[in-house]
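User: Second chain of the day. Same drill as before.
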Amino acid sequence: MSTLKGLLSVTRRMARKALLHLFVFPFWTMDKEYSRALLADPDRLGTERYCNICGYRFAKFNLCNNRKPREVECPVCKSRERHRHLYIHICSLFPFLQGKKILHFAPEEILKKIFLESGAQYYDADIDPDKARYQVDITSIPFEDNSFDYIFCCHVLEHIPDDRKAMKELYRVLKPGGTAYLAVPLGAHLVEDLSVTDPQERLRLYHQEDHVRIYNIGEFTRRLKAANFTLDLSRPNKFPGALKSAKLTNIIVLAHKR
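Assistant: Same format as last time:
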């Protein structure tokens, strides 16, 4: 039975590829990246999913995260839900970024490219020197007080044992009037035990071997407020219904320094 299913799946994919070559590619001009994505998986042809960063539509996104698979990754630009959500805010800032100083932790390539084209003074930072120009420990940021107009830090703080110290450092280097755009994986309840160091136990508790907690939104915002930030929450359900197909599932916290 499994062999028959496999043959049927291969036959269906070959038939869809033939249809793409006969009835889609000759009549629809598209970029090479998009055509490659469709050829790699013809089942992607459709309009149910929309990437607001690269502008393409698909029947489905790629799955990511082996333990808890989520259908959220754009097959072309590789953006995930948090990047597409954050991109909406970046678009509103883009005309005003010329000369502004941006600190970007764990820099995602798709966002890094945008910042480099913005005219901003851009600082990409990571604890791993191979991943960014500036090797930075987020709990001891090597920049002066009030240095940056904007900070972008997505899915970093759940890796940091002393996250409260990191939040205070983010506040310190942010200019008065500046904003830090922050996101972390969220659950219904805070799950945190800093005594757990075994990777397999962390995988069980936090769904990733190098995470040290799962926040809930209440505890995450309480810790940020304790670092003196003033907060706004950007929730996906506040955007027009047309963006539902972009799967903007992450909450982005806008942490301001008054």
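The chain has a mean pLDDT of 88.

User: Great, on to the next one.
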